Amino acid sequence: MTQASGTKLGLQENAGQFWLLVLVNGFVGSMVGLERSVIPEFAETVFGINGHTALLSFIVAFGLAKSGANLAMGRLATKYTRKQQLLIGWLFALPVPWLLLYAGSWWWVIIANLLLGINQGLSWSATVVMKIDLVGEKNRGLAMGINEFAGYLAVGVVAFLAGYIASTTGDVTKAFAPGIGFSIAGLLLTVFLVRDTHSHVQAETKQTSIPLLHNIWKDTTWRHGNLGSVTLNGFVNNLNDGILWGLLPVLLSTKGYTLTETGLLAGTYPVVWGLGQLVTGKLGDVLCKKQLLSIGMLIQGVAIGLLIFAGSYPILVAALVILGAGTALVYPNFLSVVAENTHPSQRPQSLGIFRFWRDFGYVAGAVTAGVFSDLFGLQTVILGTAILTVGAGLLSEYRMCCTQKLLWHSRECGTKLVKAN
Questions:
Q1: Taking the model in full, what pTM does it have?
Q2: Cα Rg for the chain, rounded, in angstroms?
Q3: Which residues touch 140 (CB under 8 Å, ≥6 apart)?
Q4: CA-CA distance, 105 to 109, in Å (whole number)?
Q5: Whole-angstrom Cα distance, residue 353 to residue 218?
């Protein structure tokens, strides 16, 4: 789609920059994957930490920093360009692998995760917003699916790589060394090749019919039927992810699996999550996102519950594949729903607020898992997580509406939602 200014919106029209940003987001995801499977082993062998509450403190630090950075990203969007925010995010990533490699105490790990959270909040958010800017309305779901695919595929692959390095070398600390290359590569690509998308925002603003939100914070957090439901589901999704991030390796260890097997299993879920989004993002461009979100959350809940009763390796793999598939259904469509319900000028703020609450789920999940797993055991926490996830899916089915005529749709209430605000 060509505008009067000469700026083109669309995936094909901006293919070079789009795929460059996909690569950059792959490096962003790789930084998180470093810790995904080896932190419990790292904490126990290096620092003698095995209590769930102490162990999950690193996820609390990460979640607080990331959610805060997401919120700040929306505010910074009024002062700084998307590229500048992406660059700042990478600067925060540079010290992370060095802190983990030479950690003298557990506090070094906490500081590393604070910096990593800021990196993820700024850099991942920037790549999301920039891709939305580039593609316009058409194929937005596909664009978000590709973005999240790249990020979470990298999380899963690097989680396995880290587990493999730790197992083969006998030194879990060495698993963090690849992070040096990931952070430098992401920084250099951003500095020399990424271009800002300001002109694309101006082009879409001239043609959009989406009204302004009356109160961006209230509407995104709860009041708007679609935005509020997506925010709640995002919070619950990352709550269960935060719980599994910290407790899945512990659960697998209690079942007698080796560090290599744990790395493979821990990586299975985000790999399926990542790959699945290539399909589920595009589905959001064709089907009603309401059903995709509610079904995805229900599938997640069932899969999490299945983890408790999985008595063999194949059943565990199946449960984690199902969990990844359910997460893939919801994750790119979270972002697409926010994008299609917000004016281009308000989109960074609304996405920042959504991502703030979504990633605050990591904090809530880590605190809840740490406290209650020590008190009541792993199985109780995992079962409660499954029930909560199913409940969030049912609520979105009740409250959300399709905003346009689609192949599979329920009530059309996009206009009513705007008027209700």
A1: 0.82
A2: 20
A3: 132, 284, 285, 336, 339, 340
A4: 7
A5: 10
If 0-12 CB within 10 Å is exposed, 13-18 middle and 19+ buried, where does residue 210 land? buried
**DSSP type of residue 210:** P
CB 182 within 8 A of CB 26: no
Question: pLDDT tens for residues 55-90?
Answer: 678 778 888 898 899 988 878 877 889 899 999 999
Q: Report which DSSP code applies to 219.
A: I
Element (H, E) at 56: none
Are 159 and 324 within 8 A, CB to CB? Answer: no
Residue pair 109/58 in contact by the 8 Å Cβ criterion: yes
How long is the chain?
Answer: 421
Q: What's the Cα-to-Cα distance from 7 to each of 141, 194, 199, rounded to whole Å? A: 21, 16, 7
The pLDDT tens digits for 128-172 are 999 999 998 878 889 999 988 888 788 888 988 998 999 899 888
Q: b or e along 9-18 (b: 16 or more beta carbons within 10 Å of the residue's beta carbon)?
A: bbbebbeebb
In angstroms, what CA-CA distances link 298 with 99, 214, 411? Answer: 39, 32, 21
d(CA 215, CA 196): 27
When pLDDT is cut at 50, 70 and 90, the band that residue 410 belongs to is very low
Phi, psi (degrees; rounded to nearest 5) at 244: -70, -35
Contacts of 75 (CB under 8 A, 6+ apart): 349, 352
How far is it, in rounded angstroms, from Cα 243 to Cα 369? 6
Q: Rounding to the nearest 10 degrees, give the CA dihedral for residues 45, 47, 52, 58.
A: -110
> Do the Cβ atoms of 155 and 33 come closer than 8 Å?
yes
**First-last CA distance in the chain:** 31
Q: Token match 């607080």: residue? A: 64
- Structure tokens belonging to residue 306: 């299945």
Q: Which two tokens stand for residue 217?
A: 């914070």
* Torsion angle of C-alpha atoms 179, 182, 187, 193, degrees rounded to 10: 180
CA distance to 173, 222, 421, per residue, from 382 (Å): 29, 26, 37
